[in-house]
């Protein structure tokens, strides 16, 4: 089950961004006195009472928007409403119920969504008199102050009550997300995998806006394949409707077992490819890099090596991901993907016995011990595996602050030489040994 989406909507300057930051517990959205500061949709991941969810900040909603920017902001808000599981409509107590509030509420009534009405800036006013006129919108009304926190906990408690706890339900089939920027061949690849025209394929970038699940079978084994909308550069995302599918793409990365990161081999790795790959890496998901349209690349004996070298330089954070050159249109090497998918899924679930891990640690320390920290030696006492998907490991030491990122990278390289973990990120957690804590 993926995380639910809570969208904050309202007319300009009612405090949506301030409430957004309050929910996240940190300043992300730009907050100020000038109406209309938020134009692009901003999202974040939040937790309340063990309930995990996405929260989305939107620009000020103007039903009769005429200017280009205002029209785009309106599109953003409508798209957020469409995607959200829960709507949080925010209004301003200091200004009272405005016609724009009523117009937005009429729009919300056209959608089958759970709506919470929050009246902001309630500080210093009598609650009853400030709220009275807002009850015409509905009974689910909550007085709050996004700035001071008044009423905030009660509002969040009510919202979290209707949220399901996010649990990883056992998937019937391995889930494969196909991700990439627009027009790199994602839908064509799925059609090749399925052997049928399941997706609409078009040379116009951004044809796919929604994620679509398909069951794909290969030698009797079935896979659930998700085609997702292409992710654009940030500048273009601010001007086109395709930016609204960004969050949905994130949700599909979150629920997948393996992400197929498809790129255009004829264009090389671009900045957006790097961004998409980093999303997969940060989510801890298995990854396979597909260089599509390989048939369009002029080649000699050194081409593949040169292309892969450039790719590894730009995707330096993902050296573990296997690379396959394919042509989704001609189906060249497309079937090679399935064996890699099976391998990456197995690697992501692999557990290493604690004894073997500590033998590995001893050998690694013999190759390169940790650097001295503040004139005192750093000792690594013990290692154990803490989890899978992604594989994660805990190392106990006498001086946790002395273990820096370069040495963790060294340990990761050693670990991969010993146990592979092909196609999956690994995580290390450094912990202070209990005996050391008592002494210090």
Description:
The protein is of the alpha/beta class and 440 residues long. It is globular. The chain starts with a strand and ends with a helix. The relative contact order is 0.08.
What's the gist of this structure?
The chain is α/β, with parallel strands linked by helices.
Helix content: 25-40%
Strand line-up across the major sheet: 2-3-1-4-5-6
> Rough shape?
globular
Query: Which structural class should the secondary elements be placed in?
Result: alpha/beta
Integer average pLDDT: 82
Number of strands: 15
Largest sheet descriptor? 6 strands, mixed
Rg, Cα atoms, Å = 25 Å
- Tell me the number of helical segments per DSSP (H or I, 4 or more residues long): 14
User: Any low-confidence stretches, pLDDT <50, length ≥5?
Assistant: 28-41, 206-211, 234-244
Topology pattern, helix = H, strand = E: EHEEHEHEHEHEHEEHHEHEHEHHEEHEH
Distance between the termini: 44 Å
Beta-strand fraction estimate: 15-25%
């Amino acid at each position: 089950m993926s995380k639910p989406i809570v969208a904050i909507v309202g007319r300009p300057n009612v405090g949506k961004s301030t409430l957004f930051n309050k929910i996240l517990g940190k300043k992300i959205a730009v907050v100020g006195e000038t109406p209309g500061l938020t134009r692009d949709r901003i999202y974040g991941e939040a937790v309340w009472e063990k309930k995990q969810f996405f929260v989305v900040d939107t620009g000020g909603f103007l039903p009769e928007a005429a200017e280009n920017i205002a029209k785009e902001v309106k599109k953003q808000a409508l798209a957020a409403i469409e995607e959200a599981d829960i709507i949080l409509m925010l209004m301003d107590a200091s200004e009272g119920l405005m016609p724009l509030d009523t117009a937005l509420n009429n729009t919300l009534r056209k959608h089958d969504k759970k709506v919470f009405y929050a009246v902001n800036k309630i500080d210093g006013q009598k609650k009853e008199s400030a709220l009275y006129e807002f009850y015409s919108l509905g009974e689910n009304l909550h007085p709050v102050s996004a700035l001071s926190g008044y009423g905030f906990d009660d509002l969040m408690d009510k919202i979290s009550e209707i949220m399901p706890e996010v649990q990883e339900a056992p998937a019937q089939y391995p889930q494969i997300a196909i991700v990439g920027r627009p027009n790199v061949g994602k839908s064509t690849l799925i059609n090749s995998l399925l052997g049928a025209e399941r997706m609409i394929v078009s040379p116009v970038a951004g044809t796919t806006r929604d994620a679509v699940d398909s069951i794909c079978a290969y030698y009797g084994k079935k896979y659930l394949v998700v085609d997702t909308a292409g992710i654009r550069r940030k500048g273009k995302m601010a001007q086109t409707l395709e930016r609204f599918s960004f969050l949905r793409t994130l949700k599909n990365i979150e629920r997948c077992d393996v992400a197929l990161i498809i790129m255009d081999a004829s264009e090389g790795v671009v900045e957006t490819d790097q961004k998409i790959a980093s999303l997969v890496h940060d989510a801890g998901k298995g990854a396979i890099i597909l260089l599509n349209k390989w048939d369009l690349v002029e080649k000699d004996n050194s081409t593949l090596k040169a292309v892969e070298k450039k790719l590894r330089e730009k995707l330096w954070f993902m050296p573990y991901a296997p690379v396959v050159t394919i042509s989704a249109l001609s189906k060249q090497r497309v079937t090679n993907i399935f064996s890699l998918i099976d391998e990456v899924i197995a690697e992501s679930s692999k557990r290493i016995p604690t004894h073997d891990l500590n033998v590995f640690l001893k050998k690694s320390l013999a190759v390169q011990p940790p650097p001295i920290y503040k004139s005192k030696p750093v000792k690594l006492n013990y290692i154990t595996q803490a989890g899978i998907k992604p594989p994660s490991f805990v190392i106990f030491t006498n001086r946790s602050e002395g273990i820096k990122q370069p040495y963790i990278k060294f340990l990761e390289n050693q670990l991969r030489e010993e146990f592979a973990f092909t196609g999956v990120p690994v995580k290390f957690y450094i912990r202070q040994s209990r005996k050391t804590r008592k002494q210090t």
